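PROTEIN DESIGN WORKSHEET
SECTION A - STRUCTURE
LENGTH: 226
TOKENS:
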């Protein structure tokens, strides 16, 4: 696999030398994998900032930094390919004052391919801070739910979920926003094959619809727009 790291908006302004914005590095990842993106917003002392992603054996799978100084507001992005599983994201500051807020408003995020925020930090830490996150393949384990139709999508808030067969067991349906918060939840009885949702109270945007029944698990992206 190839790790691609790029920067944008140095010091919050226009990049005068875009030719040196991207670097690549080969690395290896088990299959199947999925894409995640690490986004670091730097403070004024980018040379103090580094990060790494490790697996549960402590092996470093990807890392970044140090970066340039006097780049407050610059966003550094790294695209990774990781196998399904759980990982630790650790951010370091050599000086021990984090990346916020005395010398800029630094922050960090890890986002999956659906746009779901897996890690989100405001940069307030000392020497280092570690957060765990997990990846699952949404296509695995669909079972009897495979072939479900969710329509209309995009939707103005009203939509239906039509299953290919009746549920053998009672199920749980959740709608999750891109910060990972459950914003809608319903219990589905066994024998159900269709359910109608009214998400009109939710803001416009992208959400994940998550349906579980026994060992079957379905995840689909839905878009609310009015």
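SECTION B - SEQUENCE
RESIDUE ASSIGNMENT:
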């Amino acid at each position: 696999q190839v790790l691609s790291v790029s920067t944008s908006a140095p010091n919050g302004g226009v990049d005068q030398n875009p030719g040196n914005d991207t670097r690549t590095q080969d690395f290896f990842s088990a299959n199947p994998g999925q894409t995640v993106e690490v986004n670091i917003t730097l403070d004024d002392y980018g040379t103090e900032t580094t990060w790494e992603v490790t697996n549960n054996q402590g092996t470093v799978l990807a890392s970044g930094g140090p970066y340039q100084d006097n780049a407050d507001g610059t966003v550094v992005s790294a695209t990774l390919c990781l196998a399904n599983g759980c990982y630790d994201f650790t951010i370091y500051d050599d000086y021990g004052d984090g990346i916020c807020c005395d010398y800029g408003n630094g922050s960090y995020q890890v986002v999956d391919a659906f746009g779901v925020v897996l890690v989100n930090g405001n940069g307030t830490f000392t020497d280092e801070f570690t957060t765990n996150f997990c990846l699952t393949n949404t296509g695995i384990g669909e079972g009897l739910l495979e072939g479900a139709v969710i329509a209309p999508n995009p939707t103005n808030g009203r939509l239906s979920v039509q299953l290919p067969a009746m549920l053998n067991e009672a199920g749980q349906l959740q709608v999750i926003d891109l910060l990972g918060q459950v914003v809608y939840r319903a219990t589905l009885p066994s024998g159900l094959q269709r359910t109608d949702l009214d998400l009109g109270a939710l803001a416009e945007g992208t959400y994940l619809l998550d349906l579980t029944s026994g060992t079957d698990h379905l995840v689909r992206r839905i878009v609310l727009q009015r």
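SECTION C - NOTES
The chain has two domains: 2-135, 143-224.
The chain has no helices and 19 strands.
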